[in-house]
Amino acid sequence: MATISIILVLFLLLILIIANEATPVENIIGLGKSLSANGNNNNSNPSSWLSSSGNFAFGFYPHRDGYALGIWILDPDNTVVWTANRDGLPLSSSSTLQLTPRGLLLRQGTEEEAVAALNITSFSFSNLGKEAASASMLDSGNFVIYNAS
Prior knowledge:
Structural class: alpha+beta
Number of helices: 2
Largest sheet: 4 strands, antiparallel
Shape: globular
Number of strands: 11
Low-confidence stretches: 8-24, 113-127
């Protein structure tokens, strides 16, 4: 009886290990994390957040005489699939984007320039009674903002 129990436990552990390896782990972006248009994509000053596969990116990319904010495929051409405010003026190199409890906060210019911050989320978490807790750039090419639940 003890031998059957040990075999069953080992079998269940094997299934858990296989299932864990088969489940993709998304890159979770925590509150307060930010991007910088002039970032160099190192951990301390990134210009984009990547999907776990490294196939998609969300963040700042060079556009006209400045930068744009969007999602692109990391291929030889860096094919852009979505751009926020695509008909608007380019963003400056001092622009930043931060994940806050209210969503994504885009700041154009530096604090010293006293440029007003723009909230670029298409909906307000406060209207839903929930705040943002994290975000992720998915391997499907979607950027998702999560609440705590």
